[in-house]
Structure formats: structure tokens, C-alpha cells
């Protein structure tokens, strides 16, 4: 470089892993000083002018500025040779003008600065990493670097480096805080302060875009104590952290809240003790970083994790409840078990099951938990807005109330009870099976947002499972009972097809069978006396309650039809554990005979039928003893109904694999073995099957 001033070169300490220096070419262009490079692991002391004697023993203190043989000096080989051959009283290398560290490793920066200060305490040091960070700035500050200039910033770092070199600042001394002021003002992220050991602000730097957030300006902070800037409790917490940093001479950290014009913000403070005294006292550099967004993200993540954990626990409770329902002997046992297990899970503070009575009031069947005040207040409330339990019964949909204490729709007396019992959320779950509603399960929780959509799905399954189990228990009790209760209902003026047909044509209608398919369709087989099938089918197709109609049998005196109905009182009764024995409609008046178990809720069944047929009256209630038949007796009854030819045909077809799929014997093969024609064989087969099925279905009623 032409005209280079060699009275003091710039030494650039490089990272051996990074290859060539990225600052050297630019410094050569921007300054009149010579520029040399030395790897961080190289002969740094020699480059600073205090090399140990050479191995050849000449003791002239000359240094090898290129120990690795790479291009590490601005001087060419001839100049290096000339320097080595100079007189002994001339310094091999003059004191550097400055040392620039283009290092990114905190440990290397600290080590190199210690080596530089040990050899040349007056040499300015500039830390210029490729990518700056708070940690690197802190290391530079604590290791007494003259300046810190990260090179990835938008402004040109060379100007800052050259300006620092030419000013040739003095080394730090007791009470000199200029270096800290420069670093605070330009390099450290977010807010940064120099604070004395007594908690007094000495210097302050706040980002321009956040200066308006605070009630106290940055210019007002110097001379102010922590107690004036923060509430007493927060100030004491910060002072403890400051004292700990000075006492241990180590970096400390603390999190604290700051009230700003945009609300409460969360900050993380890193407290770096300063080696020199400032204004005669020990001090620290306080680096404050706004971590509000990070804290919010972490809080949301924890919330999602808590929700997932809670949901898993809820699902486990639901599964446990469902498992116990299978063995429940009666409806009361089912409901008691559900309420007890929900409360025992410690997820919920209360649980009860209620139903509507005939007069529209709320009747609690069973419950568990300690929220008794809340339950009593629910019972006492009458009128006003429709409550969640009533909506759940009316709509068949789950009703959820989160944050009860803040909900405007909750009456004040109920909110007071919620405060007393620590109830924050509630859910009302209809207990249903298909179109039958057996009651409502209400669950209370002490969490504000206890019932998310996923939790609602779990409770929806629980409500349906309880409903199915109650229906199954009712049917099981009826199936195995030796004594049943026969109920006779009188229905005046129903709106269904059978009532309208009998009233218009004066023809009796008798129910043969009613049931529901797997896809939920309701079918009825009805025999009409004194009316032809064509007239009946025409009337059925015009009736709004009939979705489909098919003629099954059309005789001279009666006909039988199959109907698919949109609504059926018969189906409603079966869902409540009742077996239909006989239904006859004549002249617009129906007589319905059903069987129920002895412990069945007759009022519940009557109310269910009333919802379909408004004018319904229970006219008789009788206990009936069922005849007990053994399997042998039932088999004998079936055989008595079969002819010898029908029994032979059934046996040959069964043992010959006619009923297998695919068939092992065809109808023709069975007929040939009997020496009869195939049509005759099929006639005997169908008659025999009809006799067997008749015994089975007629013995089981219409359910």
C-alpha cells in the first residue's frame, strides 16, 4: 500500500475457521495505517511487540508474522526480510495502532482481550463480529473492549472502526464510564442501563420506538432510584438481583413486569457487574429485553398442553364410566355411578342428573359433589330466561356455560351461589337414545374454560352411552322378569294415519308389528278390516305421517300394509323399555296394551306417549305372571306346529347346507332327495319356517 504509515499498524485477529479476513481489505483502503492479520490461536503477543526470543537464540525479539506460511501481513516477502535484517536497536514490530477482533466466539473474544491487555494495556481494542448478539456485547463490555461494532448492521462498520482508531481513546480508568456509555447508546439490544450499587440510575438507553411506552422519560432516569421507577415489591426484587450480581461478580437474570401505556409488559433483565467503579461506586449494566410475546407464546403452549392433559383425563373418565355402565343392574345404579365417578376424578366439583316432571318442574334424581348451594339455587329459580337444563331437554343439544361469574345471562343469585361453591363452568348434557330423552346430566367445574369443543364431544358420547345403557337395562329387566306390569292406555283422536283411516271409513286397524331398522327407519305392519288394499294405500300415500306404504296382503275381508312413518308412538314406548302387546284403533279411538318391568317408571312412559298423542289416558294397570317355559317345552311347542313333511324338509335343508352362504346344496338337490318337485319342496320349507318364526315372534310380542 503506497504511503503506508508503519509507525503503528492495525492488527486484525481472525478466526482460523473463517478463512481470510473480511475486514483487512477494507481497512487497508480506508486508512493510512498498515494492516496485519493474526489468527486467534497465533503469536498474538509477538504481533503486539513483545515476542519471546527466537529459537535460533539471537534474542532480537523479531516475530514471525506469518507462522503458518499464509498471507498474513500487508508487507511483501522482501519487506519482511528487510525488517528482519534491520539493526538490533530497532523494534521488530512497533506497537499496534489498534487491535480488531473479527471473532464470533464469546470464549475466544474474552481470551484474546485478556492477552492483548496483558501485553499492551494502552492498545485500543475493537470487537467486530460478523453477527452481533447481546451475549457478545456483554462479553466485550466485561472484558474491557474499547468498542463493540457488529458488522452485520445496515451502517458501514468501517467508519466506526476507523473513527475509534483515530481518536485513540485512553484505556478505562476508575470513574471513566464513557466506554460503557458508547456501548449502551449504540450496541446493546432493547433497553439498557448503568445502575449503581444503591439502585441509582447512572446512564439509560431506550429504543426510540418504545420511548413513548413509559411514564418516565429516559432523560429523567439518571439520578433516579429503582423505588421511584417501580412499585415497592418489584423494586425490591430488582435490587436483590443487582446486589447478587455485585456480590458474586457474575451475570444474573430476573423477570419482572412493567406497566406501560400499552398495558403490562414482561421483561427479562440480565445484570452484568462492571469491573471498574463509576462515579466512585460499584455498578452494573442492566440489559432489559421485552419478552412479552415470548411469554404469551409459552403461556398459550402451556395452556394447550394443560388442555390436552385435561382432555386425556376426561376421556379416561368417560371410558371408565362407560365400562362400569355395562355391569349396572338398574337405572338408579347407572346414574349414581356416573355422578360419583365424575366427581371422584377431581376434574369436576359437582354433578347431578335431573328430569322434567309432568308439571314442567325440575326433579333431581341423584347427584354428587359439594356444590350444594348452587344446586339448591337452581331448584329455586323459576321463570325468567330458559335455563341450560331446560334448553338441553327441549333441543336435545349440549348446553355449555363457561366463565359463569362473568356471564350476563346468569342470574345474580346463581352467580352468588357459584362464588360460594367455587363454580366457574357448567355443562348440561341430554341423556338420550335415538328419540328418547331420559334426563339431563349437569356437570360443574372450578375452571373458567372447562368445556371446550373437544370436551363437549366426550360428554356428548357419554350422554348417548348413558341413554343406550338405560334403555338396555329397561329391556333386560323386562325380558327376564317372571312378573310384569301390563298398562292399558286409551288414546282419543290421534293424528296418525291409523286414527284418521278408522274414523273416516269406520274400519278397525290392528298393529301386527312395529320396529326400527339399523338406519333408524320406523316400520309398522298394520291389518285393516273391511277395506281393500288399493283404497288403503291411496289414503296412506296422501297422509303426511306416512313416508312410504307397501301392500303386503290384500284379502276379501282385510288387507295388511307396511308403512314407514316419520313419527311413531310405538317406537317411543319401546325406547322407554315397554313391550307392545296389542294396539287397536277403532272409530278414532285407540287402545294400547304394553308390558313393563315392575320397577319401571309408569309416569315417564305415560309422559312419553303424551308427547306423541295429546289425549292419552292410563285406564288400567295390572300385574301379570308370565308362564315359565323351559327350552324343551318351547322346542316341543314348535315341533307340534310342524307337519312331518315340513320337519323333514327343514332337516334336509339344514344338514345339507341349504342355509349356508354360498349354499352347499341347491333347492333342486333337496327336492330330488325327497323325490318331490322343487316348488313343493319350497312350499314345505316356507311353511315350516313360518311356523318356527311365528312361535318365536308371537311369544316375544311386538317389540
UniProtKB/TrEMBL annotation:
Keywords: Transcription, Transcription regulation. Gene3D superfamilies: 3.30.450.40, PAS domain, Winged helix-like DNA-binding domain superfamily/Winged helix DNA-binding domain. SUPFAM superfamilies: GAF domain-like (SSF55781), PYP-like sensor domain (PAS domain) (SSF55785), Sigma3 and sigma4 domains of RNA polymerase sigma factors (SSF88659). Residues 38-73 are annotated as: Disordered. Residues 187-295 form the PAS fold-4 domain. Residues 333-470 form the GAF domain. Residues 642-691 form the HTH bat-type domain. Pfam families: BAT (PF15915), GAF_2 (PF13185), HTH_10 (PF04967), PAS_4 (PF08448). Residues 482-635 form the Bacterioopsin transcriptional activator GAF and HTH associated domain. InterPro entries: BAT_GAF/HTH-assoc, GAF, GAF-like_dom_sf, HTH_bacterioopsin, PAS, PAS-like_dom_sf, PAS_4, RNA_pol_sigma_r3/r4-like. NCBIfam families: sensory_box. PANTHER family: DIMETHYL SULFOXIDE REDUCTASE TRANSCRIPTIONAL ACTIVATOR. This is PAS sensor protein. The lineage of its organism: Archaea, Methanobacteriati, Methanobacteriota, Stenosarchaea group, Halobacteria.
Amino acid at each position: 500500500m503506497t504511503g503506508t504509515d508503519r509507525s503503528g499498524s492495525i492488527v486484525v485477529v481472525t478466526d482460523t475457521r473463517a478463512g481470510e479476513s473480511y475486514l483487512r481489505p477494507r481497512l487497508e483502503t480506508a486508512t493510512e495505517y498498515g494492516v496485519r492479520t493474526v489468527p486467534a490461536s497465533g503469536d498474538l503477543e509477538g504481533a503486539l511487540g513483545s515476542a519471546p526470543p527466537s529459537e535460533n537464540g539471537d534474542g532480537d525479539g523479531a516475530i514471525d508474522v506469518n507462522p503458518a506460511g499464509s498471507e498474513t501481513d500487508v508487507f511483501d516477502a522482501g519487506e519482511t526480510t528487510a525488517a528482519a535484517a534491520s539493526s538490533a536497536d530497532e523494534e521488530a514490530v512497533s506497537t499496534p495502532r489498534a487491535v480488531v477482533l473479527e471473532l464470533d466466539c464469546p470464549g475466544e473474544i474474552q481470551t484474546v482481550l485478556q492477552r492483548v491487555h496483558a501485553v499492551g494495556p494502552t492498545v485500543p481494542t475493537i470487537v467486530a463480529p460478523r453477527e452481533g448478539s447481546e451475549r457478545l456485547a456483554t462479553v466485550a463490555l466485561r472484558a474491557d473492549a474499547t468498542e463493540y461494532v457488529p458488522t452485520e448492521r445496515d451502517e458501514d462498520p468501517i467508519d466506526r472502526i476507523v473513527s475509534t482508531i483515530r481518536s485513540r481513546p485512553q484505556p478505562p480508568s476508575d470513574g471513566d464510564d464513557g466506554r460503557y456509555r458508547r456501548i449502551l447508546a449504540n450496541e446493546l439490544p432493547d433497553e439498557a442501563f448503568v445502575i449503581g450499587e444503591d439502585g441509582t440510575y447512572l446512564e439509560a438507553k431506550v429504543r426510540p420506538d418504545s420511548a413513548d411506552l413509559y411514564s418516565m422519560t429516559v432523560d429523567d432516569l439518571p439520578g433516579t432510584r429503582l423505588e421511584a421507577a417501580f412499585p415497592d415489591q418489584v423494586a425490591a426484587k430488582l435490587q436483590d438481583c443487582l446486589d447478587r450480581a455485585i456480590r458474586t461478580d457474575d451475570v444474573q437474570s430476573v423477570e419482572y413486569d412493567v406497566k406501560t401505556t400499552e398495558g403490562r409488559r414482561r421483561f427479562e433483565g440480565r445484570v452484568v457487574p462492571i469491573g471498574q467503579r463509576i462515579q466512585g461506586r460499584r455498578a452494573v449494566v442492566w440489559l432489559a429485553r421485552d419478552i412479552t410475546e415470548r411469554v404469551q407464546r409459552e403461556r398459550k403452549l402451556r395452556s394447550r398442553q394443560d388442555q390436552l392433559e385435561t382432555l386425556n383425563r376426561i376421556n379416561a373418565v368417560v371410558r371408565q364410566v362407560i365400562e362400569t355402565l355395562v355391569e349396572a343392574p338398574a337405572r338408579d345404579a347407572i346414574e349414581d355411578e356416573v355422578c360419583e365417578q365424575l366427581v371422584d376424578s377431581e376434574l369436576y366439583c359437582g354433578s347431578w342428573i335431573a328430569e322434567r316432571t309432568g308439571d314442567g318442574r325440575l326433579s333431581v334424581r341423584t347427584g354428587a359433589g359439594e356444590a350444594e348451594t348452587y344446586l339448591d339455587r337452581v331448584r329455586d329459580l323459576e321463570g325468567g330466561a330458559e335455563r341450560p337444563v331446560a334448553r338441553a331437554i327441549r333441543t336435545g343439544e349440549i348446553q355449555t356455560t363457561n366463565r359463569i361469574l362473568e356471564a350476563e345471562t346468569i342470574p345474580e343469585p346463581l352467580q352468588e351461589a357459584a362464588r360460594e361453591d367455587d363454580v366457574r363452568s357448567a355443562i348440561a348434557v341430554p341423556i338420550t337414545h335415538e328419540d328418547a330423552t331420559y334426563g339431563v346430566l349437569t356437570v360443574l367445574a372450578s375452571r373458567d374454560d372447562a368445556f371446550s369443543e373437544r370436551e363437549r364431544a366426550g360428554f356428548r358420547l357419554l350422554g348417548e352411552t348413558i341413554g343406550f345403557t338405560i334403555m338396555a337395562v329397561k329391556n333386560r329387566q323386562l325380558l327376564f322378569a317372571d312378573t310384569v306390569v301390563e298398562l292399558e292406555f286409551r288414546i282419543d283422536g290421534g293424528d296418525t294415519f291409523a286414527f284418521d283411516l278408522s274414523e273416516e271409513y269406520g274400519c278397525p286397524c290392528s298393529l301386527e308389528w312395529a320396529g326400527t331398522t339399523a338406519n333408524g327407519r320406523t316400520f309398522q305392519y298394520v291389518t285393516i278390516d273391511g277395506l281393500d288394499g288399493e283404497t288403503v294405500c291411496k289414503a296412506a300415500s296422501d297422509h303426511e305421517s306416512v313416508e312410504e306404504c307397501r301392500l303386503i296382503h290384500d284379502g276379501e275381508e282385510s288387507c295388511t300394509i307396511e308403512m314407514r312413518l316419520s313419527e311413531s308412538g310405538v317406537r317411543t314406548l319401546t325406547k322407554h323399555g315397554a313391550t307392545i302387546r296389542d294396539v287397536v284403533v277403532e272409530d278414532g279411538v285407540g287402545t294400547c296394551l304394553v308390558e313393563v318391568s315392575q320397577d319401571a317408571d309408569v309416569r315417564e312412559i305415560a309422559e312419553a306417549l303424551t308427547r306423541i298423542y295429546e289425549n292419552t289416558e292410563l285406564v288400567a294397570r295390572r300385574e301379570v305372571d308370565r308362564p315359565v317355559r323351559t327350552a324343551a317345552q318351547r322346542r316341543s311347542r314348535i315341533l307340534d306346529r310342524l307337519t312331518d313333511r315340513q320337519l323333514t324338509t327343514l332337516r334336509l335343508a339344514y344338514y345339507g347346507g341349504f342355509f349356508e352362504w354360498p349354499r352347499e346344496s341347491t333347492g333342486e338337490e333337496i327336492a330330488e332327495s325327497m323325490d318331490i318337485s322343487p316348488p313343493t319342496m319350497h312350499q314345505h320349507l316356507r311353511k315350516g319356517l313360518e311356523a318356527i318364526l311365528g312361535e318365536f315372534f308371537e311369544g316375544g310380542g311386538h317389540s
